[in-house]
Design brief:
The chain is built from 23 helices and 28 strands.
């Protein structure tokens, strides 16, 4: 029998996912000999045997790989036959070049859950049960290759049975780096908020009892702490809001299974797939119209619940108790990063939580729960974090090494390496020192585990963003500043592996414009390395500047002044009835005098203004609340919009909003419902920008449109524009791999900066 040999170099997510034992078992099945090992670039396989065995082996490596593996490239080359006998798994090898991919943290698998709940199993009720197919990855890794000494499990020496599993290539726990049991692994402990140990034979059972009594418990999880209360207990949920300083922003909830969720929320087939996926994100689900059974304060004045299913063994043990749902919100004081360290949690959360269920496995890098929704027939990210990071976005072509620092809100950072863009987990709003330090930590961590040395650093044009100041403070890199909305459109192009030019509709609340004004209702002809602003909403004043974001009545006054001039306070409208006349007169004087009233073209601010005019919100407690209220209140769209138009000024289409505002006010005076007015307003925007895109196509020949920016979290706007544009034979690019909001900004910055530096 003639022998041949092959060398396979495999890259992708192939470490810590059971890939080597899979290869070992496949080799035995195919009757071939050789070896497999982890390297800093992925996995290397040397295999020799007869031709048929080798062919079968090479074919099955890719087609039958483990569930968590993701192969991005296989290089197969002829090798020298050495006459090796048997097949072996050899120790990992570290190389100078590190390009392997790291698996995200994923939900505990069904096999482990079955063992967890089996009284006959030696890991019965062990809250850290895992195997190569599930459990923590990114949050416990400190370096690569991904081996136990490079994880937070290095402090736990395996007992004899665990070591036996770990060393057995035929066992599903072979080289499962977090492998442990109650004898040798991490353990949970319960304390009160004065750091006094609560002695109980089963701390998880005791925690469930405390939650039933209405207590707030800080629970250490996979990527950080949660603050938990019984979601059906009105008093407990209200107390959590007061202590956490979170007035109205919805809380996420966790339920045991789909049947429990269906009692209070509607689940479509797409949402069911998301809820049950290994990634276990928070999924936005429509509330049931009838009484939900959950406390009103869980998600006040909102049409949706944010829902997730259990994803750690500890969650499954808690949910054995008959909770309809538990609030599981980030373990932090509002606007600060979530706690991951036990001492830090006691210090920062002692005034919020009554009790702490902690464990002694370190979390190296915090990772908030991801948030997704089904919109316009696809999965759309609100927040991309645990379960998805650090999987890369694969780019159309190779890039230089770029570090992009993101924006101020919903910050993420992005590192590009060859044809891969590694976006970080959600960092948060860069409004305080704690979040800024988290940004620094995240950059250091990603650079270390990816062996990344950036040549270029990218940031937003805004000079006062902390992310911009971070970029400016770095040395040894070329600094490239990217306009906010240009970055939005390029991020959409990048995830769709598309090039420009395209018509870019960039709609959001705030972005620093090239002319120094606040942009946000932009129509851009966009290339990756440059853009032309070909259209925008007309600029109006933001009386009070940042105060106008938190007090939408100010934007209402500005739009009303633009449409009707003086005498705004005399208009008989819900907003003028709700706001003191002297406040309105002061705002008008600020607008007329240009006092602390920057100009803005923002579509987000237009949504705010209309929401205030019709009486939905004069003040908000979190970003986008007024716009969300208007979307929620809107009835079925019927194409009956308001009058609109645009005028061309020096080659740019300027879109006055006077006629739209006058139409809204006329309907309010007629006593039309908010549902009616909201539908007309949405219809107007959809028709307006569809017709404008048609005009630009006539002028330029461009037939592709990219939609990006936080306003496209509005399902009515997104769905309507896709429908109308595609109906007029445009190709439409949207976001499915990264958020449309500022959480996706860093991807666009990185790709645009690379192109601009090259140019």
């Amino acid at each position: 029998m003639e022998l041949e040999a092959k060398k396979l170099e495999i890259s992708g997510i192939v470490q810590g996912v059971g890939f080597r034992p899979f290869v070992y078992q496949l080799a035995i099945q195919c009757g071939v000999n050789g070896e497999v090992l982890n390297t800093a670039s992925g996995v290397t396989i040397l295999v020799e045997g007869d031709k048929k065995g080798i062919e079968t082996f090479c074919s099955c490596v890719e087609k039958q790989s483990p569930p968590l593996a993701r192969i991005t490239h296989i290089d197969v080359q002829a090798a020298t036959v050495t006459g090796v006998s048997g097949f072996s798994i050899v120790p990992s090898r570290g190389d100078a070049r590190r390009t392997t991919l790291i698996s995200p943290d994923v939900s505990v698998c069904d096999d482990c859950v079955e063992e967890l709940l089996n009284p006959a199993d030696r890991r019965h009720r062990y809250p850290f049960i895992n195997c190569t197919n599930c459990g923590p990855r990114y949050t416990i890794i400190d370096d690569i290759p991904y081996d136990r000494p490079a994880t937070s499990m290095k402090h736990f020496e395996m007992c004899v049975p665990c070591r036996s599993e770990y060393d057995d290539p035929m066992n599903r726990r072979f080289h499962a780096q977090p492998n442990a049991c109650a004898v040798c692994g991490p353990a949970v402990t319960l304390f009160d908020n004065r750091r006094r140990l609560v002695t109980d034979p089963d701390p998880i059972e005791k925690t469930a009892a405390l939650l039933k009594k209405g207590h707030i418990v800080a629970i250490k999880g996979l990527g950080g702490y949660h603050l938990a209360v019984d979601a059906t207990n009105d008093g407990a949920v209200e107390l959590l809001r007061r202590r956490k300083g979170r007035e109205e922003k919805p809380f996420a909830v966790m339920s045991r299974d789909l049947d429990a969720v269906r009692r209070y929320a509607c689940i479509g087939s797409g949402e069911e797939v998301l809820l049950l996926s290994r990634r276990r994100p928070i999924v936005l689900l429509k509330k049931r119209s009838a009484t939900t059974g959950l406390a009103d304060a869980v998600s006040p004045d909102n049409a949706y619940f944010g829902v997730m299913l259990p994803y750690t063994p500890l969650h499954y043990l808690l949910m054995e108790h008959p909770f309809a749902a538990l609030v599981m919100t980030s373990g932090n004081i509002s606007e600060e990063p979530i706690c991951i360290d036990n001492s830090d949690a006691f210090e920062r959360l002692e005034e919020i939580a009554d009790f702490f269920l902690i464990h002694n496995r370190d979390i190296y890098l915090r990772s908030d729960d991801s948030i997704v929704r089904r919109s316009a027939g696809a999965e759309r990210f609100i927040r991309r974090s645990r379960g998805y990071v650090p999987e890369p976005v694969f780019l159309k072509r190779k890039q230089p090494s770029v570090l992009a620092c993101g924006g101020e809100l919903k910050n993420t950072v992005c590192l590009t390496q060859t044809d891969r863009a590694f976006m970080s987990q959600h960092i948060g709003d860069l409004e305080n020192l704690e979040t800024y330090r988290f940004l620094e930590l995240t950059v250091r961590h990603l650079c270390r585990i990816l062996d990344f040395r950036p040549e270029i650093i990218a940031c937003d044009l805004h000079p006062d963003y902390l992310s911009t100041r971070y970029a400016e403070a770095q040395t040894g890199m070329e600094l490239v500043r990217i306009q906010h909305h240009h970055a939005h459109i390029v991020s959409c192009l990048a995830e769709n592996r598309a090039d420009g030019p395209v018509i870019g509709l960039a709609f959001d609340g705030t972005g620093y414009g090239s002319d120094g004004t606040v942009w946000g209702g932009e129509v851009l002809v966009t290339e990756v390395d440059h853009f032309d602003r070909v259209g925008h909403l007309s600029c109006v004043a933001m009386p009070g500047s940042a105060a106008a974001i938190k007090e939408p009545w100010r934007m209402a006054v500005s739009y009303l002044y633009e449409a009707f001039g003086d005498g705004v306070a005399d208009l008989d409208l819900p907003v003028t009835a709700a706001v003191a006349p002297e406040k309105i007169r002061t705002a008008v004087q600020m607008i007329k005098g240009g006092i602390n009233s920057p100009r803005t073209s923002s579509l987000g601010r237009l949504f705010d203004g209309v929401a205030a005019i019709v009486g939905l919100r004069t003040h908000v407690h979190y970003e986008g609340q007024a716009a969300m209220a208007l979307e929620t209140a809107t009835g079925e769209l019927n194409g009956n919009g308001y009058e609109f138009g645009w005028e061309t000024v020096e080659g740019t289409c300027r879109i006055p909003v006077k006629s739209i505002i006058r139409g809204v006010v006329k309907d309010v005076r007629k006593g039309k419902s908010v549902e009616w007015i909201g539908a007309r307003f949405h219809d107007t925007l959809i028709r307006l920008f569809t017709e404008l895109c048609q005009q630009i196509r006539r002028d330029t020949g461009l037939k592709r449109v990219a939609l990006s920016g936080g306003s496209f979290q509005n399902d009515l706007l997104l769905t309507g524009l896709i429908r109308e544009l595609e109906g007029r034979l445009f190709t439409v690019f949207t976001h499915q791999k990264v958020p449309a909001n500022d959480g996706g900004l860093s991807l666009g910055q990185a790709v645009a900066a690379a192109a601009m530096a090259k140019r």
